[in-house]
Amino acid sequence: MRKMPHYRLSCEDGSSKDIQAPNLGAAVKRLKAWVRGGEWCDEGARVIGEVTRITRAGRLIQDESETIRVLIEPNYKALMRRAGASDCDHEWSREGEGAYPENPGVWDGKGTVIFFSAHCIHCGLRRVVRTTTLHRNRYEHDTVQYRMPEPAELVEMRAKGMVESPDAE
Ligand SMILES: [Zn+2]
Questions:
Q1: What pLDDT sits at residue 118?
Q2: How many angstroms is it from 130 CA to the middle of ligand 1?
Q3: What beta strand segments (E) does 5-112 contain?
Q4: pTM, full prediction
Q5: How far is the CA of 97 from the centre of ligand 1 (A)?
Q6: How far, in Å, CA of 3 to CA of 9, rounded?
């Protein structure tokens, strides 16, 4: 059996794991998968991971290391369930969402923040995605929020044709 170099994977949450991989590139791939497989909040995150070559005794070889940012996607299904959404094959539309009629659903936040709002044309579930143009900032990542409309709001959305009526085909 070929002797493979040892690497230590570490994550900014303080956890670490030692592996063997053919080279640094392969170790980085393992790092990504390992970080993604961690337990993260449903909202998603942007996490710093690091891989460093180590000796068999576990001593770090600093000049053979790489730091990467791993984007953890939000758990959309869990977030929607938490908002009280029913089982629905959601279909998103920005039609009728506020701000600018010529560009519905786009809201200017302060500075570099932009909000996109949309709703499901079947059940009325509302979605707001907050995004930033400063994606290089390590702590910034898109966030998404869901909200079920109040009954009166849903009636209004139906009247405006944003959401289909229950008796519609
Ligand atoms: Zn829906």
A1: 96
A2: 20
A3: 6-11, 16-20, 45-54, 60-72, 92-93, 99-100, 103-104, 106-108
A4: 0.73
A5: 16
A6: 19
